[in-house]
Amino acid sequence: MSTQTPFFPVAASHHALEEGTELAPRFDANGLITCIAVDAATNDVLMLAHMNAEALALTMQTGEAHYYSRSRKALWKKGETSGHTQKVSEIRIDCDQDAVLIKVTMGGTGAACHTGRRSCFYRTIPIGAAPSADTALGFTGDAPRFDPKAVYGGHDH
Amino acid sequence: MSTQTPFFPVAASHHALEEGTELAPRFDANGLITCIAVDAATNDVLMLAHMNAEALALTMQTGEAHYYSRSRKALWKKGETSGHTQKVSEIRIDCDQDAVLIKVTMGGTGAACHTGRRSCFYRTIPIGAAPSADTALGFTGDAPRFDPKAVYGGHDH
């Protein structure tokens, strides 16, 4: 599925950008906007990724999350390879329209992360000391739900 | 408060980066990492901002959110001007260590956004049609809790 060149105007003013009802996303120099995906039921952050204009337009149009892969330099429908689709129940945009938040219901095993875990944020950074050679990440207990090698083979996710 | 040059190693391998306990954040070409701040009690996404190495180190050390302002090109302790501090109860890092998630308790009025609202994500994008001249953002009802002009004056936040 593809769209025409998406209709995304530039905001007429700073006030319109922040207080208006016109969708005027500010894509960066690479044509991308940051997207946070959260679980629609629990609000847990699942992943952070990027969308280009086409990915944002397709997400709006289809209600299925689409992203732009910076490593593969390609539009990417989430779950295309792995079955871990994201049905989008809400899309939000932030004050200065350079970040998007989507609330999703995961398909497949419920794993949003290419490592097989539900969330990409499965490790904690300790608080209370400056970073040092002693700093050790902790694991949250979000265990892999599938074997990434079996799903993705040798390919980048 | 300032730190020595923060101790942030480079991961020895892709596997160490994603499955290890070594904190090896991948700052981008501008020396920044993306940070999502969520409300510690509700999980609601409050804002998205950036940290440089010093901001991340200070956040770890003090348990108070520090960011790097791209517009002001300066380290920024959240709430320095407005009183809307963020006490950090948890820090997480994502699979490929290029994004951080912090769980925070807001100070002041509870507004994380410079517009005076609790969350920067106070507008919704409609789902079900491609973007067009008819696309209209909705407001979530997250009303401003303070007058930004009174708090920030003519300055950038």
From TrEMBL, chains A, B:
Superkingdom in the source lineage: Bacteria
* Residue positions binding Zn(2+): 95, 113, 120
Q: Cofactor comment in the record?
A: Binds 1 Mg(2+) ion per subunit.
Q: Where in the cell is it found?
A: Cytoplasm
The reaction(s) catalysed by this protein are: 1-(5-phospho-beta-D-ribosyl)-ATP + H2O = 1-(5-phospho-beta-D-ribosyl)-5'-AMP + diphosphate + H(+); 1-(5-phospho-beta-D-ribosyl)-5'-AMP + H2O = 1-(5-phospho-beta-D-ribosyl)-5-[(5-phospho-beta-D-ribosylamino)methylideneamino]imidazole-4-carboxamide
Question: Per the UniProt record, which EC number(s) apply here?
Answer: 3.5.4.19
HAMAP family xref list: HisI
* Subunit record text: Homodimer.
Please state which protein family the record places this protein in.
Answer: In the C-terminal section; belongs to the PRA-PH family.
Under what name is this protein listed?
Phosphoribosyl-AMP cyclohydrolase
**Source organism of this protein record:** Azorhizobium oxalatiphilum
